[in-house]
């Protein structure tokens, strides 16, 4: 008589039932998927559901689990980008905006330093040349108030700028602590902005992750191509309000120091000469919405934060009757004349927008501009046809592999082979159950991992059954042989699976994308196959043995 | 007695050392030849390791590589490699090709170049569709080479450490050299036949590392058991006995895995064929090496059997206490 304690039996069957229950939604993939999509759409829109959404929602009972195995890009089709954020861009911007402040600070000590001018310097460094070296001390003292403590946890106590002087040259560099703090901020902002833009484009479950110090991995299923994705992410939407110095017809005109030539968005051949330093920039925006102007044309309304509102109020108050330019991504989208001081901190941008354009612009403005440029290190586009072909091929390989292994097991071990096959099917169910539970992603190599697991999962059974045969040859009783077979094969099975697990962990750590998907299915498959091959088959054999009470055992 | 399929007779008495100079020497020779092939012919690296762009095209009519070549001429591209792709699952009107591009100068194929390539291809054959595009920059590909080598090293060391912990160090060395044998010869096959070697192949090699040690572990496990059982039998005979006793299961476990991976190789589609092939080859080599390479090394190094505990069922090692 073989006997496993009741609690153990209950635990094993409970785990099996739970795993299969969680795996079940994957059998009704498209139905559950439309259900989930409808549910998230309804949640997004805030309650109100269209009849179609209601129908899609009703297609799958809400009581049942609805987590699915995600399909990777190589199976669903979509685009993948690996972007490197150009962190040094931000250092340059910081120095560019520091220059006017430094110039103003040095004006106070002009009589000691003599003439001051900005000298050539690499990114992240500001060099100022003074004509009178004796004034260096006074200059450094005047500049000192510009430096302030770094605002970050790790860099506490250090100053954000390091100011030094030698001969006639003052050098200001960002301190290491400040650079680190800036990098963190830049990465967070970039991630957030990319996320908002991709979300606004409305694709399903995009994945946007930081990778390493300066990289962002963006994976968007269902999108047509990597170029399309780049267009969504790449639009910088840098909005500034600038003083208009004049207009010209010549793109090559010399705008004079501190000024730039910017083309008009609509009128061909019209260029504005603007003061390069913006009055207010999009960074000061807190909100923007698509709206309509007094003539019923699509427009974008916006609101500034308090700093922006104050600056804008002061400027418009002082320049009534003069034009100012609203510049977006280096084109002037409109250049209205200031009618009165705008002190409320809100305004409206008009131009010849379509409703769609005004909506997009509002979204882009709200999301803000990317703080730094991006370089794309890796791009991938997988067409949906190729993905479907891969799913079909993977499915065919899995089914045929399963049949071949199943036939082999029955031919080699008879009834015991049948038990191994039942355990194998349960094993596959459990893998899907766990993948769904943890929100894992199935990739094409992942399917290969699944097929490989079909082949290796029964290995544990082979080892046990061969051992039982050996024990039987030593004329042990059937029950004793089964018990010893399981017990004595354990060591080799554990060793084999630990080494396989080492491999899976290394693959997960070093791999990315599809390879990582492979590592995940492999690792889950190792755990579930040990469970099913040892515990489930044992319980099956026990049930059979206790019921059939065979006199002799043939494995 | 019911009929059972057996890959090996119930009881075998094969002397696995009989032709050891042929088998072991052959393995050593193959390893050397593989390294020579790798060094001389080089590997046909995919863009993962070389950087560049690949396109996969599908058209309703067959297009020969010459037509592709002339369509892409004059677009300012560097190296262009075109290969037709075949798969039993393709329909009669499904003609697939893989095109690998690299920029003439500078690092990456630009977006404008890619657009002109697409346009030129569609102009050549209106039914043609570009169904996947992949670009890897030189910066990433350089890192991938380093991290792949590192991954193979870490996995080997991890397995070495584990086997050492569970058995004697001689077993660990024998096991890992057998693994390197499998990996090096697989890479040699890729070099000789100039099969595309990309990141998924490295993943396949790592998988081979994890799985081909299994058969070796089964043999070692039995060897340890028999060393305790037959204390006075010469090491060589205990080894032969152990391999003979476990031959059936070594072949059966290899067979189940080969059936599954073989199905992947034939029916899994061309995208993953290289990957499946590498695992398939690795498992055959792994089964061979666990019978012919691993234990021979242990024999060469020699085991110190004098310290074996007398008459104890327990193992000789603090972690080796699961009796098998």
UniProtKB/TrEMBL annotation, chain A:
Example GO biological process: protein targeting
Transmembrane domains' residue ranges: 396-415, 422-441, 489-511, 517-541
Domain Protein export membrane protein SecD/SecF C-terminal positions: 375-545
Intracellular or extracellular location(s): Cell membrane
Superkingdom of source: Bacteria
Keywords assigned by UniProt, alphabetized: Cell membrane, Membrane, Protein transport, Translocation, Transmembrane, Transmembrane helix, Transport
Keyword hit for Nucleotide-binding: no
Pfam families attached to this UniProt entry: SecD_1st, SecD_SecF_C, SecDF_P1_head
GO-annotated cellular components: plasma membrane
Entry's Gene Ontology molecular function annotations: protein-transporting ATPase activity
UniProt keyword Protein transport, yes or no: yes
InterPro entries noted in UniProt: SecD, SecD/SecF_arch_bac, SecD_1st, SecD_SecF_C, SecD_SecF_C_bact, SecDF_P1_head
The protein's role, per its UniProt record: Part of the Sec protein translocase complex. Interacts with the SecYEG preprotein conducting channel. SecDF uses the proton motive force (PMF) to complete protein translocation after the ATP-dependent function of SecA.
Complex formation: Forms a complex with SecF. Part of the essential Sec protein translocation apparatus which comprises SecA, SecYEG and auxiliary proteins SecDF-YajC and YidC.
NCBIfam families referenced in this protein's UniProt entry, alphabetically: 2A0604s01, secD
Name the record gives this protein: Protein translocase subunit SecD
Organism name: Stagnihabitans tardus
High-level lineage: Bacteria, Pseudomonadati, Pseudomonadota, Alphaproteobacteria, Rhodobacterales
Record gene name: secD
TrEMBL record, chain B:
The protein's name: Protein-export membrane protein SecF
Residue ranges crossing the lipid bilayer per the database entry: 21-41, 144-164, 171-193, 199-220, 246-269, 275-301
Membrane topology: Multi-pass membrane protein
Location of the Protein export membrane protein SecD/SecF C-terminal domain: 119-302
Recorded GO MF terms: protein-transporting ATPase activity
Oligomer and partners: Forms a complex with SecD. Part of the essential Sec protein translocation apparatus which comprises SecA, SecYEG and auxiliary proteins SecDF-YajC and YidC.
Cellular component aspect of the GO annotation: plasma membrane
UniProt-annotated location(s): Cell membrane
The gene coding this protein: secF
Annotated function: Part of the Sec protein translocase complex. Interacts with the SecYEG preprotein conducting channel. SecDF uses the proton motive force (PMF) to complete protein translocation after the ATP-dependent function of SecA.
């Amino acid at each position: 008589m073989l006997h496993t304690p009741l609690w153990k039996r209950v635990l094993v069957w409970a785990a099996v039932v739970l795993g299969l229950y969680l795996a079940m939604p994957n059998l009704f993939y498209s139905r559950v998927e439309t259900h989930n999509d409808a549910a998230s759409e309804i949640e997004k829109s805030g309650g109100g559901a269209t009849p179609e959404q209601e129908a899609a929602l009703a297609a799958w009972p809400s009581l049942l689990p609805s987590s699915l195995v995600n399909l990777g890009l190589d199976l669903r089709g979509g685009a993948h980008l690996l972007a490197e954020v150009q962190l040094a861009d931000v250092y340059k911007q910081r120095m560019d905006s520091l220059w006017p402040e430094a110039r103003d600070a040095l004006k106070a000590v002009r009589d000691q330093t003599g003439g001051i001018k900005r000298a050539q310097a690499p990114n992240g460094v500001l060099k100022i040349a003074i004509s009178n070296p004796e004034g260096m001390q006074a200059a450094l003292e005047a500049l000192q108030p510009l430096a302030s403590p770094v605002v970050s946890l790790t860099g506490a106590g250090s100053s954000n700028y390091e100011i030094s002087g030698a001969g006639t040259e003052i050098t200001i560099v960002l301190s290491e602590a400040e650079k680190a703090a800036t990098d963190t901020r830049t990465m967070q902002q970039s991630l957030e902005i990319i996320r908002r833009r991709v979300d606004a484009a409305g694709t399903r479950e995009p994945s946007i992750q930081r990778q390493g110090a300066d990289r962002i991995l963006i994976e968007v299923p269902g999108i047509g191509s990597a170029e399309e994705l780049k267009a969504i992410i790449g639009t910088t939407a840098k909005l500034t309000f600038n003083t208009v110095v004049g207009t010209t017809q010549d793109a090559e005109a010399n705008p004079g120091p501190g000024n730039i030539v910017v083309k008009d968005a609509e009128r061909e051949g019209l260029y504005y000469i603007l003061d390069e330093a913006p009055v207010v920039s999009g960074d000061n925006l807190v909100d923007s919405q698509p709206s309509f102007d007094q003539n019923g044309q699509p427009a974008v309304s916006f609101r500034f934060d308090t700093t922006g509102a104050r600056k804008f109020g002061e400027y418009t108050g002082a320049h009534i009757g003069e034009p100012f330019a609203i510049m977006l991504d280096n084109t002037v989208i409109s250049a209205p004349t200031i009618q009165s001081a705008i002190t409320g901190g809100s305004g409206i941008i008009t131009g010849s927008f379509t409703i769609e354009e005004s909506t997009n612009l509002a979204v882009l403005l709200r999301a803000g501009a990317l703080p730094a440029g991006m370089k794309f290190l890796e791009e991938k586009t997988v067409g949906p046809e190729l993905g479907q072909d891969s799913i079909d091929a993977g499915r065919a390989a899995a089914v045929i592999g399963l049949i071949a292994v199943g036939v082999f097991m029955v031919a080699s071990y008879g009834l015991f082979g049948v038990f191994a096959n039942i355990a194998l099917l349960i094993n596959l169910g459990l893998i899907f159950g766990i993948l769904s539970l943890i929100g894992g992603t199935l990739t094409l190599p992942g399917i290969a991992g699944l097929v490989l697991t079909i082949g290796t999962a029964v290995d544990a059974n082979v080892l046990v059954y061969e051992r039982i045969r050996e024990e039987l040859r030593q004329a042990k009783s059937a029950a004793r042989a089964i018990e010893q077979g399981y017990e004595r094969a354990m060591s080799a099975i554990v060793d084999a699976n630990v080494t396989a697990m080492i491999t899976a962990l290394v693959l997960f750590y070093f791999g990315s994308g599809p390879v990582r998907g492979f590592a995940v299915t492999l690792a889950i498959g190792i755990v579930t196959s040990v469970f099913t091959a040892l515990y489930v088959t044992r319980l099956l054999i026990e049930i059979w043995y206790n019921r059939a009470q065979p006199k002799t055992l043939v494995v | 007695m019911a009929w059972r399929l057996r890959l090996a007779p119930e009881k075998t008495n094969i002397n696995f050392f009989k032709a050891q100079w042929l088998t072991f020497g052959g393995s050593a020779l193959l390893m050397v030849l593989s390294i020579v092939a790798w060094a001389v012919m080089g590997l046909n690296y995919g863009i993962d390791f070389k950087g560049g762009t690949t396109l996969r095209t599908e058209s309703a009519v067959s297009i020969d590589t010459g037509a592709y070549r002339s369509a892409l001429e004059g677009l300012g591209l560097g190296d262009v490699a075109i290969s037709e792709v075949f798969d039993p699952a393709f329909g009669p009107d499904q003609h697939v090709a893989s095109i690998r591009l690299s920029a003439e100068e500078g690092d990456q194929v630009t977006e404008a170049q890619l657009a002109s390539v697409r346009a030129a291809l569609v102009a050549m054959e209106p039914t043609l569709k570009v169904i996947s595009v992949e670009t890897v920059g030189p910066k990433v590909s350089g890192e991938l080479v380093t991290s792949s080598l590192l991954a193979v090293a870490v996995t080997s060391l991890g397995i070495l450490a584990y086997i050492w912990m569970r058995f004697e160090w001689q077993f660990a060395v024998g096991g890992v050299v057998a693994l390197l044998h499998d990996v090096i010869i697989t890479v040699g096959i890729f070099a000789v036949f100039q099969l595309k070697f990309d990141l998924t192949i490295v993943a396949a090699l790592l998988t081979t590392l994890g799985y081909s040690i299994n058969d070796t572990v089964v043999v070692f496990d039995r060897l340890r058991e028999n060393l305790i059982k037959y204390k006075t039998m010469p090491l060589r005979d205990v080894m032969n006995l152990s391999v003979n006793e476990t031959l059936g299961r070594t072949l059966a476990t290899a067979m189940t895995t080969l059936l599954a991976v073989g199905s992947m190789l034939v029916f899994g589609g061309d995208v993953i064929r290289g990957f499946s092939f590498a695992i398939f080859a690795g498992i055959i080599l792994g089964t061979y090496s666990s019978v012919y390479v691993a234990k021979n090394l242990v024999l060469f190094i020699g085991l110190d059997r004098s310290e074996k505990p007398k008459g104890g069922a327990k193992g000789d090692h603090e972690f080796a206490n699961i009796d098998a």
